[in-house]
Amino acid sequence: MFIKRGMKCLSLFFLRVYCIIFDLKQSGMENGIPNRKKWYRVLKNRYFIASLLFLAWIVFFDENSFVSHAENKRRLNELVRQKEYYLERIKEDEQKLEDLNAGKKELERFAREQYFMSKPDEDIYIVVEED
């Protein structure tokens, strides 16, 4: 949410700068000064240059830039999904372990189904169903 709000403010700022530079409200000349000279004067303004450099630094180069912030947020969401997945797997494994510790019959059933173990006088047949 912060990024969206920050991007809105940033886009409004650039819109205002664009309007100042290109003077969209009037065309031709303002107070006898052509727009091209006004545009040059705005770009030459040291405060404007300092503001642009500051914004470029914050957006792209800073350790906590918007770019790294978005990347960190994406990574955090991925890690949260992985955490939920592994918590679910832990619950399933705990349930299986509980079932195996329930008794000798459950342990024997698990060994027969998973590892195809049998008693010495038994034969095992594996039936494969074709689709």
Molecular structure report:
The chain crosses the membrane at residues 47-67. This is Septum formation initiator family protein. Keywords: Coiled coil, Membrane, Transmembrane, Transmembrane helix. The chain is mainly alpha-helical. It has 2 domains: 1-62; 64-119. It is 72% helix and 3% strand. The protein has helices at 2-22, 35-44, 46-61, 66-100, 104-115, and strands spanning 29-30, 33-34. 0% of the residues are buried. The model has no long low-confidence stretch (mean pLDDT 79).
Q: Could you say how many structural domains there are in total? A: 2
Largest sheet: 2 strands, antiparallel
Any idea what the shape is? rod-shaped
Roughly what is the average pLDDT, rounded to an integer?
79
- Helix fraction? over 70%
- Succession of helices and strands: HEEHHHH
Distance between the termini: 50 Å
Radius of gyration: 34 Å
Strand order of the largest sheet: 1-2
Derived from helix and strand composition plus strand pairing, the structural class reads mainly alpha
Low-confidence stretches: none
How large a portion of the residues is in β-strands, by DSSP E? under 5%
Number of helices: 5
What is the tally of beta strands? Answer: 2
InterPro entries: FtsL/DivIC
Protein name: Septum formation initiator family protein
Coiled coil: 76-110
Keywords: Coiled coil, Membrane, Transmembrane, Transmembrane helix
Topology readout:
Layout: H1 2-22, E1 29-30, E2 33-34, H2 35-44, H3 46-61, H4 66-100, H5 104-115
Antiparallel strand pairs: 1-2
Looking at this protein, list some descriptive labels.
single chain; 131 residues; mainly alpha; two-stranded antiparallel ribbon; 5 helices; 72% helix; FtsL/DivIC; membrane
